[in-house]
Every structure is written in C-alpha cells, then in structure tokens.
Amino acid sequence: MMRLLTTLLLAACTACGGPSQDGNAFTFDEAGMAYRIEFRTENTVRILARPAGSPLVTRRLVVDSLPAAPVEIRRESTEYGYAFRTPQLWVEFDRARGLFSFRDARTGALLLEETARSLRPDTVGGEACYAVTQRFAGTDDEALYGLGQYQTGALNYKRDTVLLLQANKDIVNPYLVSTRGFGLLWDNYSASEFRDGGDAFEFTSEVGDAVDYWFVYGDDPAGCVRGYRALTGAASMLPKWAFGFWQSRERYKTFDELTGVVSEYRRRHIPIDVIVQDWEYWGEKPRWNALLWDSVRFPNPGAAIARLHEEYGVRLLVSVWPGFGPETAVYRDLEAAGALFDERTWAGYKVFDAYDPAARDIVWNHFRTGLFDTGVDGWWMDATEPSFREGFTQRKQEARTKSAGKTHLGAFHRYLNTYSLVWTGDLYGRLRAAAPERRPLLFTRSAFAGQQRYGTAVWSGDIIASWETMKRQLAAGVNLAASGFPYWTFDTGGFYVTDNGGIYPRGLADPAYKELYARWFQFGAFLPIFRAHGTNVPREVWQFGDERSVWYRNQTKYIDLRYRLTPYVYSTAYDVAANGSSFIAAAGMAFPEDRAIAATDDMYLFGPALLVRPVFEPMPAGARTQPVATLLPRHDGAWWYDFFTGGAFRGGERVTRTCGLTELPVYARGGSIVPMGAVKESVMAGPDRELEIRIYTGADARFTLYDDAGDGYGYEQGEYARCTLGWSEADASLHISAREGSYPGMAQEQTLRIRVFRPGAEPAEQTVRYTGEPLECKFQSTENR
C-alpha cells in the first residue's frame, strides 16, 4: 500500500512538471533553473542548482559518481512545493522562492534553510562559468567548526570570514560543522570564501557550473564527521610505526649523519620509530627533486636504508616535491610531454601537471626506480599547494597558481585547491599496488576534501617559533579534524626560530626558547603524529641539554608516555579508520551540550578519553612553576580525573593546576577506559604482553582494544585481535569480551593490571590473565561522592 501511495504521489508530481526520479536522485526545472536532489544515504543529500540547459563542466574529484545503495525516500507535493523524506531527513523545496530547507524527519525540527542564491555569468581563465553564492539562515546558539586549517587562531567561525585558499600554512577542506548537528560540504574547487554574519552565513566561489553542496545530518558534531567520511571516503589505516616518535630536521646532509642520529637514540634508549630526510639529498638546485639520491653524500641507499630497518628498527621518510630542476631526467621527460607549468618558482624548478595521467606515469616511473626501489618507507610530499613562489600568503599563492595557466582538466582557476588531492590519490594507488605488504604513508603540507582516504597525514606548514603561534595551532588542528581530516601535527617548536619571523636569535642558547620548546613538545605528544622538526636549530633530544637537564628529562618523559599510550593511540587509530571517529576534537565540539565551552580555545580531546590543556604561557620571570586554569566540560560521566595524580574534579569546575616545567594538565573523562602498555624503543617491537587498564568511573564506559601486525593489509582479511572492554557503573564490574580475530605473532596471553579510579579514593586494583576468553572482574561498589 505504501509503495502504491508513493508511486501515485510521484506520478502526480511528474504530471504537473514536478520531479522525475533516477535511483536516489530527483531532477526538476523551476523558473528557469534546473535542480537535482541526490541522496547518498538517509542523512546525506546533494543539492545542485544551475540555470536550465547550462553544462556541468567541472570534473568531480571529491565524491565518487558510483551508484549509492538504495535509500528509502518518500516524495510528495506540498502547499509550497515538494518534499523528500527519508527516515532521518526531510528536504523541502519552496517553488515560489526557489530555495531548499532541511528538517529532522523524526521531530520536524528545522535544521537549516537557504535564504538566497546567486549565479552570475562570468569568464575566468578563458572559460565560461558562474560566480556562485549560496546563503543560509544562521542562529546565535550554534558554534561553527571545520573548513580546514588556518593560522588566524579562530576556533568558532560565528561572525567570522574564512578565505578558502591553499597556502604554505593554510589547508582547505570546505566542510562546515554546526553544533546544531549538521555538516555542509561546499563542493567547489575554485577560490572561495565562507562568511558568517550571525543571523546568516554564505559560501561564495569564483568558478562554478552550479551551486553544488552536500548536506549531512549527523545529530551531533561527531556524527557529522562520520557522515563526511561516509561521503568522501574512510580514513586510511596508517602503519603502526606512524604513531611512534618522528625525528626530523632541516636537514641531514649525509647518510652517515642521519644514521648517527638514529644510532644515538638507540644508544640512549630513547624510543624512536621514524627518521626523516628533508630536501637536497638530490644535490644542488638544478637537480631539484631528481627523485634520485646524490651518489657522493648518500651512496648505496639500498644498503643504508636496510641498515635502518634491520639494525635499528626505524623507518625512513623522504621529501619529494611537485617540481623538478632543469638538470633532471624527470624534468626532460615531462618537458617533452608538455606537462610542466611555465610559472617561475623560488628555487628554479618547474611544477608538473598532476592532473595529466601521462605526466603522473612519468613521475611514477622515476619515483619508483630512484627512490621506492631503494626501500624508502614513507613519503614527505612537501609544497603540494603547489608551491611556486610567495606561497606564505593565500592571495599570492592564488595568483601564482592561476598564472600557471591550464591543467590537463582545464583552467587552474577551476581546480585551484585540489592539486594535493589529485597527486596523493594517484601516488597512494600506485604504492598500494606496488607493495601490498606495506601501508602507504603520505605526509603532505596541503590537502583537500577526501584526501584522508589516501593514507595521508598533514602538518601545519612553516610556522614561526612564538607562544602565540603555538596556541594558534590548537584551533588550526581541531578545525581540520572537525572537517573530517584525522591525522595532523606541526613543526614542534616552530619551523623558523632565529629568522623569518622567529623571535629567538640565540636559538638553543636562549632558555626562553627552550621553555617554549618544552611546552610545545608536551603538546605534540598528544597529537595523532608526534614529530620534532624545524630549521635554524637542531631538534634531537640531547641538543637541548644533558641527561640531568630539565629540558632533556621533559622530552624523554613525554616520549616514554607516548609509547606507554600506544594501545590507546593505535586502538583510536582503528576507530578512526573503521568507524569514522576523530583523533582530536575541540572541547566545544566534543561536548556541544555545554555552551560555556563553545569558544574555549585552550584545550582539546585526544582520543575518546583524554582532555589536554597545553601550557600556552611562559612562566613569570624567576618562577619555576606556571598556574594553568582549565574549565572542565560538563558531561554525562560527571567527573574528570587528573591523569597524573588521580585527583577527581566535577565537570563545570574551573581547576587550576600548578605546573613545573615537565608538568602538563591532562584530565581523563569519568566514564572512560584508557589502556596502556610498557615503554618500548619502537611501537613495532612485538605485541603487548602486559597492559595496564585504567577505568575512570562516573558512568558506564566502553573501549575497543585493537591490535594487528602493524603494517600491510592482513587486517582487511581478519588478521587482527580485537576485544571490548566494558565497565558497568551499577555493579562496579569490568567485562572483557572474547577476543575476535588473530594475526601472526600476536600475544596469545596477556597480563592485565586493572586500576579503577574513583573520587576521593586510591585506585582499586586487580591483575588477571587474559587468554582470549571472556572475563569479568568485579570490584567493591563505592558510590561516587
């Protein structure tokens, strides 16, 4: 009967010139405009509006065109126009106004409505197009996050303007998340802008065929991130070694120097998993990015890299660029193919046309034989905006990119923000095919929507060393995460220290810089990627002082803690890849029900349990401690626990912690579980046979403990070990499920030291042996005070 009613309603609509259906999509014309409504899921829909008869020219790069699974959609005529209903979402079209609105199908609550639209004919880059604008109604009681990574320090974009343009320190991902529970992906690749005026917000783009966006209803901000991943692609599972400590600097000048650094880490028993070779290993500027090792300073690369693997258990990342010097073979091959942009660059190289399949073939052939075949583990894809010159400001980067002319797909104006997406996508596919036993790791300075599906992590560019810059990184990182991109980091201590805006000309001779670096290093330990890098001063731990110095002890303390947290970190990485969760989140986004913290820009959630409040202020002159205040979010678990002392505080309290130079405020959420292991010199040094399981009481808690071989794709065929840890607040018991799956080399038995934290009491403890069978551990019930 329902099927018949739906058919009759659709027939009635079609008979009066209403929508026609093709699968999950509906099209109709109204007042000279052509509209398309395309459901990807019950809660995700595309809106496309253009002048009737105008062509769609832009190649879709973010959302694939594959048919979606059938969606249950009820469509009908209404008093004002048309309505399209799924079990979760209700989309209405007002025929008189030519505008759409979105409602919760279960409650009827208005989520978002269009208020105006503009498509102005134009010619840009020699191509006919429209300058497009779409305006929406806003509300005062929402916070807006996402849109990528920017260096303004803005966390909540209410009453703010964001230029959606790539640059050295800016990353575009045009996905907006509202605390009202919706996300909006502005599906345009050209120079764009987001502007919020309080009661309305709008997106504007220079080049478009249509107004084209995706509306995602996620109930809450976390659901919006999951919806984005379902739409644009799941985040790749990075190799486990990517979550260890990375040592990098600009730059190691020989293999001997690089290997000596790794050897010193091992001699000192400081954990390390990744060493990074920055630029100019290829030789002088005319040989820029030759995709070859310089034979004098970096001889016998295969043997040198094999030694890193076999003797030290360390992986190597190598810098590669999108441009090539005139004395390289790859340059000559690309020039012969007409696949180099004739735009001047700061180092004399020319950028290749990554949009051209033939050019990508040429680059890959040189890349494979010159670098990949020598055993390199990961790829630092630097300057993928792409960098020409004057790339530190968005408008200058925009001008240089447009000046490069046409890509294989069309004018650069049309595809302005997508270079990194296209090149990483191509390289990821080739790497996975060439070495299925290894998970690709691409580390890029630029990104765009969908790039998370290509094994990519990013960093925040060539930032300067200052307290203000460090604090701005928090807003930059959590907004990138809110826009759906999970793997992020920065240059710990700032890239520039003594020049180019860096304010510490004495470098490591200045205790003020060492203090900044110490706090920045603590911050970095609680990010998806933990990395030391920069220019002007060396970044190895021992360069800051001997083993007795506070500077040395601070770094080793947080490296050791990071390695103890590996079970928590890697299980979170699994949840990110499998379930669309976030690695880091703004406090206001993680706890949207607490309006008091919506604009709080000094703390964030790391994984599901840990609230981190970096120290963003230097100690007063002559002081040895720094008071650090934290407004703890209200939440269902009521309590927060000091991660280092176990002290309990209620959500809503403003807590001040007095921090010495090696101390950092970290709070565990009541109603959470944090698994920890032993300190190892590499995260790949075998499975965990002993674990500490921390239970922070206040509410029921659940955590999926995950492990696998750490590399390769066996986990996609069930080669992993997974179990669920579940805490029941009512009967004070921990239930451990049966182990699911197995993988070669896994620990068949594990010793679990379970510690239960409660307010006002010492942690209760039990030690049990876990063999993969279900376990229940009961504790004495004590009501939280």
TrEMBL record:
Listed GO MF terms: carbohydrate binding; hydrolase activity, hydrolyzing O-glycosyl compounds
Recorded family membership: Belongs to the glycosyl hydrolase 31 family.
Signal peptide: 1-17
Presence of keyword Hydrolase: yes
Domain Glycosyl hydrolase family 31 C-terminal, chain residue ranges per copy: 582-674
Record-linked InterPro entries: DUF5110, Gal_mutarotase_sf_dom, GH, Glyco_hydro_31_C, Glyco_hydro_31_TIM, Glyco_hydro_b, Glycosyl_Hydrolase_31
Stretches assigned to the Glycoside hydrolase family 31 TIM barrel domain: 236-571
Identification of the protein by name: Alpha-D-xyloside xylohydrolase
The keyword Hydrolase is assigned to this record: yes
Any matching Pfam family: Glyco_hydro_31_3rd
GO biological process, one term: carbohydrate metabolic process
Keyword list, A-Z: Glycosidase, Hydrolase, Signal
Residue ranges of every copy of the DUF5110 domain listed in the record: 690-757
